[in-house]
Structure formats: C-alpha cells, structure tokens
UniProtKB/TrEMBL annotation:
<comment type="subunit">
    <text>Monomer.</text>
</comment>
<dbReference type="InterPro" id="IPR033705">
    <property type="entry name" value="Anticodon_Ia_Val"/>
</dbReference>
<dbReference type="InterPro" id="IPR002303">
    <property type="entry name" value="Valyl-tRNA_ligase"/>
</dbReference>
<dbReference type="InterPro" id="IPR009008">
    <property type="entry name" value="Val/Leu/Ile-tRNA-synth_edit"/>
</dbReference>
<dbReference type="Pfam" id="PF08264">
    <property type="entry name" value="Anticodon_1"/>
</dbReference>
<protein>
    <recommendedName>
        <fullName>Valine--tRNA ligase</fullName>
        <ecNumber>6.1.1.9</ecNumber>
    </recommendedName>
</protein>
<dbReference type="InterPro" id="IPR013155">
    <property type="entry name" value="M/V/L/I-tRNA-synth_anticd-bd"/>
</dbReference>
<dbReference type="InterPro" id="IPR014729">
    <property type="entry name" value="Rossmann-like_a/b/a_fold"/>
</dbReference>
<dbReference type="GO" id="GO:0002161">
    <property type="term" value="F:aminoacyl-tRNA deacylase activity"/>
</dbReference>
<keyword id="KW-0436">Ligase</keyword>
<dbReference type="GO" id="GO:0005829">
    <property type="term" value="C:cytosol"/>
</dbReference>
<dbReference type="GO" id="GO:0006438">
    <property type="term" value="P:valyl-tRNA aminoacylation"/>
</dbReference>
<dbReference type="InterPro" id="IPR001412">
    <property type="entry name" value="aa-tRNA-synth_I_CS"/>
</dbReference>
<dbReference type="InterPro" id="IPR002300">
    <property type="entry name" value="aa-tRNA-synth_Ia"/>
</dbReference>
<keyword id="KW-0648">Protein biosynthesis</keyword>
<feature type="domain" description="Methionyl/Valyl/Leucyl/Isoleucyl-tRNA synthetase anticodon-binding">
    <location>
        <begin position="624"/>
        <end position="728"/>
    </location>
</feature>
<dbReference type="GO" id="GO:0004832">
    <property type="term" value="F:valine-tRNA ligase activity"/>
</dbReference>
Length: 729
C-alpha cells in the first residue's frame, strides 16, 4: 500500500506541491501536454505594489483559479497572467510616509530622488502580494509577470495617448476639477469617497439692488435669503440662481443683488437644475468652486472668480480680510462679518456628505485648473454597445445597471495628475524664447505650442504631469500581451475570456478596459465579467484594518491551510450576494480536508498493493447503483453551476455528495460487500473510481490536497492532477 500519513498536515503538503507544479512547467501554457490548443486567458486584476493580500483579493484569486484549473484540465491552452500596478497616488503616499519618519518631505529630496526611492520600495516590497498568491495556490504563469511601469508597458501607454490625441479626443483646458491639496493633484469623480459629516446650514441675506431701469420693476423685498454649507465660497459668487418654475422668485429674475462683504453686484438668474425644495430655493453660484455651479456658470456665461488656491488657502480674490487664510479660518471670518452686518437670518445643524480623497482622506476642493482631458462621448457609446450586443456579459447581470448609469451620464475624463510617480504625459512645451513650432504629427488646434511624441525638438521640456493610474490600467489586457507590437502572445491570447473583479471598480476600470480594447485593438478585451461578492463582517459592516475588523487571509492559511481557506471563501459565495464573514466555514473546510484524507486512506487500505489499469466499475449491488447514480447527478449539477460562475453552489453539491453519499453511506456499505470475489473486486474499483473522479472535480477548489492524494491513488496515472482530464459531463 502506498504511504499516506495518518493525519493531514497542510504545512507538510502545500509548499511541496506548489514546487512540483512550478517544476512541471504546466503553469505556462506553452508547456501544456494537451492536444487541444484553444487558448483560454485570464489577466489577474493587478494589485498595488504597496499592498498585501486582503480577504477580497483571496476570494477573487480563488474564483479565477477555479476557472483556470478547470479549463486547464479540459485541455485548453490556459494562461493566467499575473502582475502588479504602480498605483500612482497610493504608492507615492506610502513612500512619503516613510520620508516623514525621517523628518523629510518629497520637496526636500526632489522629484528624481523620490522616484528612485519608489523604485527601491517596489524592488523590496512589490512582489509581496505575488508570493502570497502562490501561498493561496494560484496557478499563475510566473514567467509572464507584468508591471504597469515596465519599459514595454510605458511604450503601450504612450501609443494609446498618441492615438487618442491624433484622433482629437485628448485636449488641454482650464476646467473646474476635483483637487486634493494634500496629494497636490487633480482627481476624477470616481476617485472620491463621500463621508457623512455634521455641519451647519447658514441662511444668508443677499440685499437686492434698487434698479433704475424702467423695464425691471422694483419690489418691496429688500433681500433674498440663500442657504449654504460653505459661506467662505460666497466671496467668489457671481450669481444667485432660482428655478424658473419657482413662483416665489419669478418676478426677481433679472434683478441684481449686492454680494455681502465683497460689495459687488451679481445677477439673479433662472436655471432648471436648481432644486426648489433645497434650503430657500435660492442658491449661490460660485463657478470656480463647485462642479454644478461651473455647469451653471458655463450655461449663463458667468465670470469665474477663484478664491481658494491649490494650497488650501484663500487667494487675493477673496479680498483683504480673508486673503491667505486657511479655508476653515476664512469660514469663521466670513460668518463673523455677516453677523456684524446682521445678514445671517439663521443657522441650522445639517448633516451632509463631503467628498474626500480616496487615498489620504483630505476634503476635496473644486477649483479651476489647467488639465488634460479625454473626450468620453464616443468611447462611452462603444463601451455600452459592447454590453448591449452581448459581446461582453456581466455575471450577475444586475451589475449592468451601474455600468450603463455611469456611461449614460459620463463627463470628459481628467487624465492628468500632478504627482511625481507614474507615466509622464508625452507632451513637451517650448522653453522661454524658443520659437514655437507646429507639431508635425497633426494639425489639431492649439498644437503649435506643444510637441506630442517621442522625439521633441531641442529646447523643449516634457510636462511634469503624469497620467491617471487608471489610464494605464485600462490597457492591462492589451499591454500585458505585448500591444502595440504584434506579438505571439497578443495573437494567441487576446481577447481574454474572463475578468473577475469587485463592484467598486466597474466604472473606474472595467468600462475603461472595454472601450480601450475596442478603440485600440478593435476587439472587446474579455467576454465574461464576474462581479464577486463583497466580504463584510459578521454584522454586515465593511471590513476595516484600522478598526481591527479586517481578516488577513495569510493568518487563515497559517492556521488552517490554503485549501481550507479557499473552501471557506467559496462556500460563502452564493448567488452573488455579499458575504457576512464566518470563520467557522474555514474550519469546516479543514474538517472536509481531513475527511478527504481519511477516506483516501480507507480506499488505499481496501485496494492494498493493487494498481488498476482502468476504473470502469459495474453496478453489481443496490449500493453500487445508488452511488453511481447520485455521483452522475452531482457531477452534472456541479458542472452546471461552475459554468454559470456559481462556485458556492457547485462546492455545496460536491461536499454533500462526498461527505454524505460517498463517505457516510457507500463506504460504510462497502465494508459489507464481501459476498464473493467479483463483488469485492468491483467494490475496490468503484471506491477508487469515485475517489479519483471526486479528486478531479474538487481540484479547482482545493488543489493542494487533491494533488497530494492523486499521487497515491491505486491507479496507473499519466501525469499530475493539474493536467488530468476533467470528468465528462
């Protein structure tokens, strides 16, 4: 009898088995023994180089590994491509925090030195999460690891930029954008996090100006009351807006108000975007410091007066009494001045959502800034058509709504960032006194002042801006396979087949990959999008490392093993619903692994030294008939759910069959099947058959233990379980 330890110890098995897989070469599609060379590709959503494996990563990696292992066993030329993202703001912030410990800022050491330190950080810590993927059992092709700042990847990013620019989709303009003063950069709407805060609603009197024009009738009102949560921005007001249907104010449209403190006249305008029910129905309009106000200002051709600077202090536009003050100081000063003037009607407590930077939690300011933008209308239409046509499918389908809602209301994408770490925008400006030349690549308006390309003329300096991290990440399925070069990998593995990811980056990343693939390569980058569950605490709250409610999957692996951890994750993944985390399911996974181990020891003992050439059992007894019938049903149902990406359902079916039908019932019955040699031998074969087929079916879910047990099965095998044939449906 082949040796199998009395008890299962994952620490004795897992590292050894992973080394066997790596040595076999089967993680690389070029080395697979299958005759079926049809490719099947997944590119892993690249984690940040700053990160370590969190529980969401572990769930997503397990889902992808289940898919890739099944396809590999089905004979596909499977590529699961790993890699990491440079994660601009996130990585720069981490390294800046390290500098802060030394009493330094990035400005103290300069741009080149900071970038050098970030590369050093990447070399030291960048592979941490990739090694953790290995611990989990992820069967990725480690010969193809990619990084979004690799030299080849940088060329892909520049090629994409040139393409959009030459097509007239990229432009530079001064617009009101989201600004983080801590990170000193612009942010897109999708990079904001909204958090509720207790504040006040100030009701401020704006005095009406007596009008001498006969066309406009003076009225008995002396002022309009405006409600605002930000009295400091009133210093930059250029109008007060009301809804044209609001009967309270119809007769005042066209009149002027005297802006308190600043003592300049501003008009009362009518705009349909104003909510009649909010506050008093009259809204101050500050086009420089509110995105909605900026739209109103553009429609009504209002002047833009910037009163808040990028450093978070008030500009000279705020007037002498507030210039140079911090925003909070200015707010206090404005309220004091208004109270002196008896222009505050009342103050009410008010709870509202405040936009914060998704990386450093700083309150975001809207302010005008010169930035680079990507026009989105045409690209959004392509992205929507890809899903509407069925070329790309969401699983579960309900996530299409988020996708379409965003694309139907899309704005041009602010693609420039004012940080130091990232892909520098390939735009060059003439130095002072340098004669401006026309860009030879295009005749698009305003290009005479800049050069866009790889070979700038003398005395031209490259822009300091870098591209939004998501601009480069949007190229992931393409650039990782060699685009824009026509590589063999691009030819063989693009488009990919499956993307598994979280709901919170459907718009940040998924939509952008889709339009990038269609626009740049003429094909959607993947066919199926799996939006996996979000793992919450047992109480249904979001996990938080800072609050001590996060779960470290490496702790689970250390305590229970990778297979048990994978089991616990997938067991709770049911119907795409969020998971209320319960560690007892990981414990159940450990118990199941023990059951699998012990039942294999029983089958080995029953078969002795005999090694079967083939496993074709007959149904000689009622127990035989029953187990073969229920096994066929379990196999069929499990396959059905796996193909629908309902992995939790599939695991429940396999678990119930193996534990209850095979172990509890058939193994017990097999001990009694001793009537004659024919039945005894058939029972041995049937035990080995059910065990071997079960190991195949369970391998994608719990790969380590199944590979280990496959090695000792009493059958003549061709190869490792990782490339064994998948059980026929």
């Amino acid at each position: 009898m082949r040796e199998l330890a009395p008890q299962y110890d994952p620490k004795e098995v897992e590292d050894k088995i992973y080394k066997i897989w790596e040595k076999s070469g089967y993680l690389n599609p070029d080395n697979l023994p299958s005759k079926n060379k049809k490719p099947f590709t997944i590119t892993v959503p690249p984690p940040n180089i700053t990160g370590s494996l969190h529980i969401g990563h572990a769930l997503n990696a397990t889902i992808q590994d289940i898919i890739i292992r099944k396809k590999r066993m089905e004979g596909f030329k499977t590529l699961w491509l790993p890699g990491t993202d440079h994660a601009g703001i996130a990585t720069q912030n981490v390294v800046e925090k390290e500098l802060k410990k030394e009493g330094l800022t990035r400005h103290d050491i300069g741009k080149d030195k900071l970038i050098e330190k970030i590369w050093q950080w990447k070399e030291k810590y960048g592979d941490t999460i990739l090694n953790q993927f290995k611990k989990l059992g992820s069967s990725m092709d480690w010969s193809r690891v990619r990084f979004t700042m690799d030299k080849e990847y940088q060329e892909a990013v520049k090629t994409a930029f040139f393409h959009y620019y030459e097509k007239g989709l990229i432009y530079r303009a001064e617009r009101v954008i989201n600004w983080c003063q801590r990170c000193a950069t612009s942010l897109s709407d999708l990079e904001l996090e909204y958090k509720e805060a207790d504040s006040n609603l100030w009701f401020i009197k704006y005095p009406l100006v007596k009008n001498s024009e006969p066309k406009i009738q003076n009225t008995k009102e002396e002022y309009i009351i405006v409600a605002t949560t930000r009295p400091e921005t009133m210093l930059g007001d250029t109008a007060v807006a009301v809804n044209p249907k609001d009967e309270r104010y119809k007769h005042l449209v066209g009149r002027n108000l005297l802006l308190p403190i600043q003592n300049r006249e501003i008009p009362i305008i009518a705009d349909e975007k104003i909510e009649i029910e909010f506050g008093t129905g009259a809204v101050k309009v500050t086009p420089a410091h509110d995105l909605l106000d900026a739209d109103i200002g553009e429609r009504h051709k209002l002047p833009i007066l910037k009163v808040i600077g990028q450093n978070g202090r008030m500009t000279d536009g705020a007037g002498k009494i507030c210039e140079g003050l911090k925003i909070s100081e200015c707010r206090k000063k404005v309220v004091e001045e208004l109270q002196k003037l008896n222009l505050i009607d009342k103050i009410e407590p008010y709870k509202h959502s405040i936009a914060r930077c998704y990386r450093c939690n700083t309150i975001i300011e809207a302010l005008p800034s010169m930035q680079w933008f990507l026009k989105m209308d045409e690209l959004a239409k392509k992205a929507m058509e890809s899903v509407k046509s069925g070329k790309v499918k969401f699983h579960p389908k309900r996530w299409e709504k988020i996708y379409f809602d965003w694309l139907n209301n899309i704005k041009d994408w602010t693609i420039s960032r004012q940080i130091w770490w990232g892909h520098r925008i390939p735009v060059f400006y003439p130095n002072e006194k340098q004669e401006k030349i026309r860009n030879p690549k295009s005749e698009i308006r305003n290009k005479s002042e800049i050069y866009v390309g790889n070979s700038p003329p003398k005395n031209y300096t490259q822009s300091d801006d870098v591209l939004d991290t998501w601009f480069s990440s949007a190229l992931w399925p393409l650039a990782t396979l060699g685009w824009p070069d026509k590589t063999e990998d691009l030819k063989n593995f693009y488009p990919t087949q499956v993307l598994s990811t979280a709901r919170d980056i459907i718009n940040l990343w998924v939509s952008r990959m889709i339009f990038s693939g269609v626009e740049l390569a003429g094909k959607e980058p993947f066919e199926d999008i799996i939006i996996h569950a979000t793992i919450l605490t047992k109480e249904g709250k979001r996990m938080s490392k800072s609050l001590g409610t996060g779960i470290d999957p490496m702790d689970l692996i250390e305590k229970y093993g990778a297979d048990a951890t994978r089991f616990g994750l997938i067991w709770q993944q049911m119907g795409g619903q969020d998971i209320h985390w319960a560690e007892e399911h990981v414990i159940a996974g450990k118990k199941f692994c023990n059951k699998l181990w012990n039942s294999t020891r029983f089958v080995l003992m029953r078969n002795g030294e005999k090694e079967h050439d083939n496993l074709k059992p007959k149904a000689l007894t009622d127990a035989d008939k029953h187990i073969l019938a229920v096994f066929e049903k379990a196999k069929k149902d499990a396959n059905k759910y796996i193909e629908k990406y309902e992995f939790g359902q599939a695991l429940h079916i396999l678990y119930d069959f193996y534990w209850h039908e095979f172990c509890d019932i058939y193994i017990e019955n097999s001990k009694k099947q001793t009537e004659n040699d024919k039945i005894i031998e058939n029972t041995r074969i049937l035990l080995a058959h059910i065990l071997s087929e079960s190991l195949k079916l369970m391998h994608p879910f719990i790969p380590y233990i199944t590979e280990q047990l496959w090695e000792v099965l009493p059958i003549k095998k061709k190869d490792l379980l990782i490339v064994e044939g998948w059980p026929a449906k």
